[in-house]
Design a protein that fits this description.
Layout: E1 6-18, E2 25-31, E3 34-37, E4 44-46, E5 49-61, E6 64-72, E7 80-89, E8 93-99, E9 101-102, E10 109-116
Antiparallel strand pairs: 1-5, 1-10, 2-3, 2-4, 2-6, 6-7, 7-9, 8-10
The structure holds calcium ion.
Residues 21, 26, 72-74 line the site of calcium ion.
């Protein structure tokens, strides 16, 4: 495949406008069934505000749709799949913003900020 048609997807920030849980969400992000963030622990506590992520998904073909799953870690019950971010990678640039499509949450409001290079 011609490298010109390949993209690197840089995930920059996660904006939390409304948490799913009262105190904080224990957030981790999965891609293709594997945890991709945070890389050094099970989850990161997220409250309302802007959170820097800074990770890259390399070698994406043009017009590929990337799905990132937003999960909330739970200690005494199964983890909650809060929702998904669906991003169509069809041109270089950004930052772009993608809102969370809710799955197992009724309350959460999250937006992902990303760039394609
Ligand atoms: Ca939790």
């Amino acid at each position: 495949m011609d490298k010109k048609n390949q993209f690197n997807l840089d995930i920059i920030t996660l904006h939390c406008y409304r948490q799913d849980e009262r105190k904080a969400d224990e957030i981790f992000i999965c891609y293709q069934g594997k945890k991709i963030w945070p890389s050094d622990k099970k989850y990161k506590k997220i409250t309302v505000g802007k959170h820097t992520l800074n990770f890259r998904i390399p070698q994406i073909e043009q017009n590929e749709s990337i799905v990132l799953e937003l999960w909330d870690y739970d200690f005494f019950s199964p983890n909650d799949h809060l929702g998904t971010f669906n991003m169509l990678i069809n041109e270089k640039g950004g930052p772009y913003r993608t809102d969370l499509d809710l799955k197992e949450s009724r309350n959460a409001k999250y937006t992902l900020e990303w760039e394609a290079h």
